[in-house]
Specification:
The protein has helices at 2-50, 61-82, 86-100, 109-138, 142-150, 155-185, 197-208, 211-241, 253-258, 275-287. With 294 residues, it is mainly alpha-helical. The chain has two domains: 2-241, MetI-like fold, CATH 1.10.3720.10; 253-287, no CATH class.
């Protein structure tokens, strides 16, 4: 118990002395995670859509060749960036690009380091999101695509109006999962000198050698960020799901088409029923009749 009290006092002393640097690291971590996740989702959305464009044997050869080439390129991109650690991807992009371009492409200064970090995390996120988007698209019932084609919708119209809205709702948990992963994985950006939450921890420890106490502050900080992100994402999911129950209109389709349909609550201009009768009908449609009424 004494050790926990001593740890708490050391953590309080560290926070009191370096709170501004810890908060600066948290701010950098959140900005990088949010921006990189948004860009990565856009990359994944484009790759997922391109990877699911249909083609048939009777399509023109250039179209089939182009779509197959796109799928090969997307597959290579996904497999390479999903199959290698982000820390090595950071080394390759930050140090490898200047090496292969004879210093023509370099990330200079603080702005260059931010740009490199955003590119690295975004590309890595896009590789994971590409497969999530592809899975979300093919999870939609094929009958909806066939129905859209039956009423004359093009492939673009079908994707934007029918498939993607449902697919995005299906993959929303995966988007949130990638965002939470990015909050934690930004810690590997110290390899290129980017100072975020974990980078501030390394600098602070270099001044006082209180590694474990500072690491405990880091753990609590990361846990708070991920818990808040999880809470907000669950709120967004519930908002997209809409209401738990719906009031279904039960009326003859010919009556509705003729313009004489009477809404249970509002009725029509020619409705002679009382307000109490309309309220009773509305309750019956919503909850069903009781056994005595039947």
């Amino acid at each position: 118990m004494d050790k926990f009290i001593e740890l708490g006092m050391d953590m309080a002393a560290l926070w009191g002395q370096y709170w501004d640097r810890y908060l600066s690291g948290i701010r950098s971590t959140l900005i990088l995670a949010v921006v990189a996740t948004l860009i990565g989702c856009l990359i994944g959305l484009i790759c997922g859509i391109l990877n699911t464009i249909p083609y048939a044997k009777n399509d023109p050869l250039p179209k089939r060749f182009l779509l197959k080439l796109i799928r090969v390129v997307v597959r290579i991109y996904v497999e390479v960036f999903r199959g290698t650690p982000m820390v090595l991807q950071a080394v390759f992009i930050y140090y490898g690009l200047p090496y292969f371009t004879d210093q023509q492409i370099m990330f200079r200064g603080n702005s260059g380091m931010w740009l490199a970090a955003i590119i690295i995390v975004s590309i890595n996120t896009g590789a994971y999101m590409a497969e999530s988007v592809r899975g979300g698209i093919i999870s939609i019932d094929p009958g909806q695509t066939e129905g859209a084609k039956a009423i004359g919708m093009t492939h673009v119209q079908t994707m934007t109006s029918v498939i993607l809205p449902q697919a995005l709702r299906n993959i929303l948990p995966q988007i949130g999962n990638n965002f939470i992963i990015n909050i934690k994985d930004t810690s590997v950006m110290f390899i290129i000198g980017f100072i975020e939450f974990f980078g501030q921890h390394r600098n602070i420890v270099g001044n006082n050698y209180m590694y474990f106490q500072s690491a405990a502050i880091e753990m609590i900080g990361y846990l708070c960020m991920t818990l808040v992100a999880s809470f907000l994402l669950r709120l967004l999911e519930r908002r997209m799901d809409g209401a738990d129950s719906y009031e279904l209109a039960q009326a003859d389709q010919l009556t509705m088409a003729a313009g004489t349909y009477s809404h249970p609550s509002r009725g029509t201009p020619f409705d002679e029923r009382s307000k109490e009768q309309r309220e009773r009908i509305r309750q019956e449609l919503k909850h069903g009749r009781t056994r005595g009424d039947r």
